[in-house]
Each structure stands twice: as C-alpha cells, then as structure tokens.
C-alpha cells in the first residue's frame, strides 16, 4: 500500500533546492521485501537450473513469480522514487527476516508443485493398472473355458481307453475265432553270405587307391624335385615366365623322321677317315607346331622392350641343362623377329658344347662375329631377309671359353653401336665354367630355358645364383611341359 507524501528533504545550499519524496516506513519495508524476494527467487532459479531444464514446469513457474515480483517492485519505485536510496540503508536483520519468509514461501510453492506432479504420475499409473486388470479379466475367461474343454476331452479319452481294453479282452476270450493263417511260400534253401567278402574286397580296393594317391603325392612333392609348372618358377624363384611350350611327339613335330633343329654344329657323319659337320636345317624350316610359340615369344619381347628406344636390344637364351631346347628357341625367335621387317636381326652362335670345331651352314662356313659387324663382309652371314647368322669362333676355330668370352666382351661396344635391331645370343647351358656366366651381365635380357620334369629345382637355383652374381636381368621359358590329365577332361570341364 502507498501512503501520502511526506515533507520533502532539502539538500544542497539555499540557491539549489530539490524536493525528494520520502517514502513511508510501510512502503520501504514492502520494497525491501520485494527486493529480497527477487534475490531469493533468482538464487532458487539458479539452483533449479542446475537440476532441471529450461522447459521444466517448475522453472517456468519460478520465472513467472520473478517477473511478477519485479513488476510490483517497479510500480512501487514509480510511486516512491526515494525507495532506491533507502533500500541501500536497510538493516541486515530485516533483510534476513524477510529473506527467511520468502524462502519458506518458495519452499511451500515447490512442495505444492511436486505433489501435483506426483499426483499426475500416480493417476497415470492407476489408469494403466485399470486397463491391465480389464485385459486380465478377459484372458481369465478364455483360460477357464479352455480348462473346461480339456477336462471334457480327458474324460472322453478315458472312456475310449476303457472300451478298447474291454474289446481286446472279449476278442481274446472268444472261442469261435480260430486262426486260419497258412504258409504262403516255403523258405529258400540256405546260401552262403558273401556280403562280408564283398565288403572286404571293396575296402582293399579303396585302400589300394588311397595308397596309390598318397604314393603319387609323395613322389611328386618329396622325391621328385623337378620343375613341372610355371607357377613354381614364379613363386619359388620369382622369375617372370615369358612363354610355356608343351611337349610335342616326334612324328607330329618333324614328320618323316627329320632331324631336330640344332644350331651350332648339328649331327656328325663319317666321311672316309675324317669327320665332317653336317649343317642343321634353316630357321625357315621350323615346324609349324612351334611357329605360334615363336611368334608369341616375339610379341612378348616386343611388349617387354616397348619403352626402350635404343638399338640394338641384346637377348641371350640359355638352358640349365643340355637338351633343354635353348638353341631351337633362339633360332625360331630370330626368324620370327626378322619377319616383322622393322630391322636387321643377328643370331650369334656361342654354343660350343656340341663338339663342332668348324660350324657350317648349308655347306659353307659361317661368318665370324667380327666380320658380321662390317658391311662389306656381312653378306656371307645373310640367311634370309633381315636375318644374319654368325659364329663367335669364325674361321680360326678358337673355341676355348676364356679366349672366346674375352673376344665377345671386346666386341660388345661394337655390337652395341651396330645397326641391328635385335641381337640374339645362343649360349651354352649355365655353369660356373661356361661362357654364359661371363657374358650374362652384358645382355639386356637373359631367357632361361627350363625343361619341364627334367630340370631339377637345385639346378635352377644354382643358375639363378650365378646370374645374380653377374647382375643379369632374367626371364624364364618353360619348355616341353607335359600334360598329365587327358584332353577330354579339360574339354569336359
């Protein structure tokens, strides 16, 4: 409540006088009460904010109370402006008393709100319990009905069991019923049971097949240490396999008993008292069965040297053991490369292990390696279009390995500077004493010819060790691979 105005207080000197309305004591007490109440409500709002969210009804109601008390305080300040100054001089005891009253009031309000919320929760629980009780009553009726039906079915079953038992007794005691069952067929004569013998024979046969399979696996995986598949070269020795060539029968490969293609000598025949070397067939006489593999090997090499622009490319072919087919593949590869017409191809015969002191080709002596590098003398080594053939021994017949390797090494700069596009070296099998080990490091690529099922793994390992010491780039060709599964199995699968 507001009281009438009180005489104004005079502040300052006589010339500057300002009248200030002094509020009555009731208004000052009410103003302090409102201030303390606002302070208490704000403290309580701070405490509740740490527990509840801003959307909680208790927090919203508390904020409404704060707004209402602030409105009353503002109205009281508008009526009595001097309350702002008198509020600062309020006694702490009065403020504490009013604060205690306000806190008690706020606690009562909070309790009322909590009781109302609890009442709503209990009301909802009561409604849910009522709904569940009604549903239980409906289910109970169904359960009682089913129990009654079960009792009826049990009584009926007992009556049927009693009737069946009585009928069985009556039938058994009836004398008028005599059995009239007669034998329809006489038993067969006794025969010796051979099923045990058959089972024993089947077990023995199965055991034999199993032992045979185990023995074959033991021979293939343990005793037989030869290379059979290209995957063994790639996995065990990390060799890129350029070509896999299957084995061909002699009749299919050469027809009417023709000789095999052997560069660097060929066969020998007795003429009078001297031994004369018979020239091998030409590279153009290569059997048609092997021609696709020569062309495939050529295409693989062209792809391998696709990014190499310098000329010539020097390639060497050598085997791990004699008879692996490196000479045949060198001749076929040289012929296939010459058929492209891109440049001249030179085939160099360094295979001195054939026993030929003076190599001949079709009755004339082969051109020497030094002569084949001179344009005026290379005509003697022309075999066919773009294909030249040379022997490192030449006409002097020097076939000693250390002398030969030094001779070839001395000629390597001239070979590198020649106008040939490809130079194919036919090298003897790799061994610590062969010329192959000494010349492998000068080649752009060494193709190691491995004969399937004939070349042992330790031979390949020793050859790879020697080529590794020579720092040669090595690829592999798996030759004469045998198929142990019939063709019809492959076609059927």
Describe the protein's architecture and organization:
By secondary structure, the protein is α/β, with parallel strands linked by helices. It is 50% helix and 14% strand. It has 14 helices and 15 strands. The protein has helices spanning 25-49, 57-79, 83-88, 92-173, 195-223, 230-236, 250-254, 291-304, 326-338, 369-372, 401-416, 435-439, 457-469, 487-492, and strands at 9-11, 18-20, 241-246, 268-271, 274-277, 313-319, 344-349, 360-361, 364-365, 367-368, 382-384, 387-391, 420-426, 445-451, 474-481. Strands 3, 6, 7, 10, 11, 12, 13, 14 and 15 form a nine-stranded mixed sheet that branches.
Give me a quick take on this structure:
With 493 residues, this protein is an alpha/beta fold.
Distance between the termini: 110 Å
* Structural class by helix and strand composition: alpha/beta
Describe the global form.
Answer: flat
Biggest sheet record: 9 strands, mixed
| Mean pLDDT over the full residue set | 77
Q: Into which percentage range does the β-strand content fall?
A: 5-15%
Which stretches are poorly predicted, pLDDT < 50 over at least 5 residues? 1-20, 251-285, 354-359, 394-400
Number of strands: 15
Helices and strands, in order, run as EEHHHHHHEHEEHEHEEEEHEEHEHEHEH
What's the gyration radius in Å? 58 Å
Helix proportion range: 40-55%
Number of helices: 14
């Amino acid at each position: 409540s507001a009281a009438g105005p009180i005489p104004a207080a005079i502040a300052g000197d006589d010339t500057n006088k300002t009248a200030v309305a002094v509020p009555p004591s009731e208004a000052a007490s009410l103003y302090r009460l409102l201030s303390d109440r606002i302070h208490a409500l704000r403290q309580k709002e701070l405490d509740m904010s740490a527990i509840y969210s801003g959307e909680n009804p208790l927090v919203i109601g508390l904020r409404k109370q704060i707004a209402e008390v602030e409105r009353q305080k503002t109205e009281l300040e508008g009526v009595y402006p001097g309350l702002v100054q008198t509020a600062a001089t309020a006694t702490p005891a009065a403020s504490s008393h009013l604060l205690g009253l306000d806190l008690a009031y706020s606690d009562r309000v909070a309790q009322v709100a909590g009781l109302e919320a609890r009442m709503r929760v209990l009301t909802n629980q009561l409604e849910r319990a009522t709904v569940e009780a009604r549903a239980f009553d409906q289910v109970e009726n169904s359960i009682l009905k089913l129990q009654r039906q079960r009792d009826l079915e049990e009584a009926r079953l007992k009556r049927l069991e009693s009737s069946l038992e009585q009928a069985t007794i009556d039938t058994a005691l009836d004398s008028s019923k005599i059995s009239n069952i007669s034998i329809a067929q006489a038993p067969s004569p006794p025969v010796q049971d051979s099923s045990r013998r058959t089972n024993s024979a089947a077990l023995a046969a199965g055991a034999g097949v199993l032992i045979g399979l185990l023995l074959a696996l033991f021979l293939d995986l343990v005793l037989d240490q030869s290379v059979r598949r290209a995957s063994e070269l790639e996995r065990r020795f990390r060799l890129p396999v350029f070509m896999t060539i299957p084995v061909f029968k002699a009749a299919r490969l050469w027809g009417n008993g023709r000789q095999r293609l052997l560069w660097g000598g060929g066969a020998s025949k007795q003429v009078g008292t001297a031994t004369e070397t018979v020239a091998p067939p030409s590279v153009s006489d290569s059997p048609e069965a092997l021609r696709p593999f020569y062309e495939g090997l050529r295409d693989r090499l062209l792809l391998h040297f696709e990014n190499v622009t310098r000329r010539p490319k020097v390639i060497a072919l050598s085997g791990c053991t004699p008879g692996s087919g490196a000479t045949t593949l060198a001749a076929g590869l040289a012929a296939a490369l010459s058929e492209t017409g891109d440049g001249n191809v030179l085939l160099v015969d360094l295979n001195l292990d054939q026993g030929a002191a003076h190599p001949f080709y079709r009755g004339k002596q082969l051109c020497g390696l030094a002569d084949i590098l001179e344009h005026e003398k290379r005509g003697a080594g022309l075999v066919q279009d773009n294909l030249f053939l040379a022997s490192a021994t030449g006409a002097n017949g020097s076939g000693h390995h250390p002398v030969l390797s030094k001779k070839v090494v001395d000629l390597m700069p001239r070979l590198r500077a020649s106008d040939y596009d490809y130079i194919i070296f036919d090298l003897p099998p790799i061994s610590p004493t062969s010329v192959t080990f000494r010349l492998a490091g000068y080649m752009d690529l060494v193709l190691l010819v491995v004969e399937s099922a004939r070349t042992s793994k330790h031979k390949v390992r020793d050859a790879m060790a020697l080529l590794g010491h020579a720092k040669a780039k090595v690829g592999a060709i798996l030759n004469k691979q045998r198929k142990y599964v019939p063709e019809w199995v492959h076609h059927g699968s």
